[in-house]
Design goal:
With about 160 residues, this protein is of the alpha+beta class. The chain is built from four helices and six strands, in the order ββαββαβαβα.
Length: about 160
């Protein structure tokens, strides 16, 4: 496991990992500082994992759910002599790269003993949180603005 700490960007105060807070008392956001001194590539990731769990030593959560997340394909195409790479994030369970953040956030909320979470989203993030909550047994309430696309609102109603 990589040594790390969570600190406030404004005042530098270290934050306890066993309680939930979304910002420091001074109003600052948080940084996760990793101590990588003396570490080599094979020690940093689990190369046997073909999911976001390969980075578990970096993540601020003790246990990740057994949901396959990440490892979406990269497709290379040459278009008019230009080499392009396309990351197919739409193949994630919720159809977006935002599923990755939802996956870790829901896992952390469960670790802290929360029964549910509330998010605001006009679509992809809300879908990711709703799906990860459903698959992890956690209640998720999504506040959606009126201008959000109808298709996304309909999908959220199903989740």
């Amino acid at each position: 496991m990589i040594s790390s700490k969570i600190v406030c960007c404004n005042c530098g105060k270290e934050v306890r990992r066993d309680e939930w807070c979304w910002r420091d008392d001074c109003g600052g956001a948080f940084d996760i500082l990793l101590d990588l001194r003396g570490k080599k590539f094979p020690e940093l990731i689990d190369v046997r994992e073909e999911s976001i769990r390969r980075y578990v030593s970096f993540l601020p959560v003790a246990k990740l759910p057994a949901i396959h997340q990440g490892w979406t394909p990269l497709v290379r195409e040459n278009i008019s002599g230009v080499e392009l790479n396309f990351k197919l994030e739409y193949l994630s369970p919720g159809g977006s790269f935002k599923d990755r953040g939802a996956y870790v956030s829901v896992a952390k909320a469960k670790e802290l003993g929360q029964r549910g979470i509330i998010v605001d989203s006009s679509g992809n993030s809300g879908i990711g949180f709703s799906l990860m909550g459903l698959l992890s047994g956690m209640d998720v309430d999504v506040f959606v603005p009126a201008y959000a696309p109808e298709g996304k609102k309909n999908l959220l109603r199903l989740l």
